[in-house]
């Protein structure tokens, strides 16, 4: 495997000359620009693919600049994951699937599960899986940091579930803020959905401002019904995670 870094473009023709697969892996805000910049060096025998967490626009751009096989991937795990075993890799087909079938098979051999989905559907789902989740985690962390509390004391007094929640919040802030800013702001739908979260928060707060316990329970049961059998499944799965989190307690 040979990489083409940002300072290597003067040698791009040499670096890419014998490539069978050109895999774009750059920050979201550089993806379209990078794909377009690759155009003069692409031949029809090459597979052009990307790993961006946004799929519709990059896939469209790749199809536009390249006449050969095109496919979009989104690994649903971070760079600190030790192996692909049981990990999910999203696949958005572009063109010439028969040419990159070997690549899909190789990913499966490495142990990953491939989830095929339309690029637009993928981006809609990521509004909730990534943008909304990351924003709410950021907001919770920001709020905690501005409160008159000591983090060490919260950890000392925390239950396993709260410790796990703190770990998920702290994990976000141990990473690159620019990456999360790009994920949260990558499309207008994200902001609209986040604004709806604000409305839901204000609506939910009224149950307690107005001492409406019955109203809260009614909505609680409505959400329980929406989750259906997944509620029990998630309860069992979380018990395993909670035990693991408790094992790390010092």
Order of helices and strands: HEHEHEEHEHHHHHHH
- Sheet with the most strands, sense and barrel status: 5 strands, mixed
Helix content: 55-70%
Tally of strands:
5
Strand order of the biggest β-sheet: 1-2-3-4-5
Keywords: Oxidoreductase
Organism: Haemophilus paraphrohaemolyticus HK411
Protein name: Prephenate dehydrogenase
Domain Prephenate/arogenate dehydrogenase: 1-238
Characterise this structure.
By secondary structure, the chain is α/β, with parallel strands linked by helices. The chain folds into 2 domains: 9-117, NAD(P)-binding Rossmann-like Domain (Rossmann fold), CATH 3.40.50.720; 119-188, 6-phosphogluconate dehydrogenase C-terminal fold (Orthogonal Bundle). Helix content is 58%, strand content 11%. It has a 5-stranded mixed beta sheet. Helix 5 (119-145) packs across helix 9 (188-209). The longest helix has 27 residues, at 119-145. The radius of gyration is 22 Å and the shape is elongated. The model has no long low-confidence stretch (mean pLDDT 95).
SSE order and pairing:
Blueprint: H1 12-15, E1 21-24, H2 28-38, E2 47-50, H3 56-65, E3 69-75, E4 88-95, H4 101-109, E5 113-116, H5 119-145, H6 151-157, H7 160-173, H8 177-184, H9 188-209, H10 213-227, H11 230-247
Parallel strand pairs: 1-2, 2-3, 4-5
Antiparallel strand pairs: 3-4
Helix pairs in contact: 2-3, 5-7, 5-9, 7-11
């Amino acid at each position: 495997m040979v990489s083409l870094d940002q300072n290597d473009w003067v040698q791009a023709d040499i670096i890419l000359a014998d490539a069978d697969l050109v895999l774009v892996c750059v920050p979201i805000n550089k993806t379209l620009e990078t794909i377009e910049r690759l155009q003069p060096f692409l031949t029809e025998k090459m597979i052009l693919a990307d790993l961006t967490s946004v799929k519709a626009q990059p896939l469209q751009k790749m199809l536009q600049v390249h006449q050969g096989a095109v496919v979009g991937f989104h690994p649903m795990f971070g760079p600190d994951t030790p192996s692909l075993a049981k990990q999910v890799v999203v696949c958005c087909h572009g063109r010439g699937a028969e040419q990159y079938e070997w690549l899909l098979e190789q990913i499966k051999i490495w142990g990953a599960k491939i989830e095929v989905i339309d690029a637009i559907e993928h981006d809609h789902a990521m509004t909730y899986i990534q943008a909304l989740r990351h924003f709410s985690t950021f907001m919770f962390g920001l709020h905690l940091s501005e409160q008159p509390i000591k983090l060490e004391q919260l950890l000392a007094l925390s239950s396993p579930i709260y410790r796990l929640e703190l770990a998920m919040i702290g994990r976000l802030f141990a990473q690159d803020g620019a990456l999360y800013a790009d994920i949260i702001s990558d499309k207008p739908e994200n902001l609209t959905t986040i604004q709806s979260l604000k409305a839901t928060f204000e609506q939910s707060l009224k149950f307690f401002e107005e001492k409406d316990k019955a109203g809260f329970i009614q909505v609680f049961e409505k959400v329980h019904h929406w989750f259906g059998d997944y509620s029990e499944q998630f309860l069992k799965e979380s018990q395993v995670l909670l035990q693991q989190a408790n094992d790390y307690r010092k």
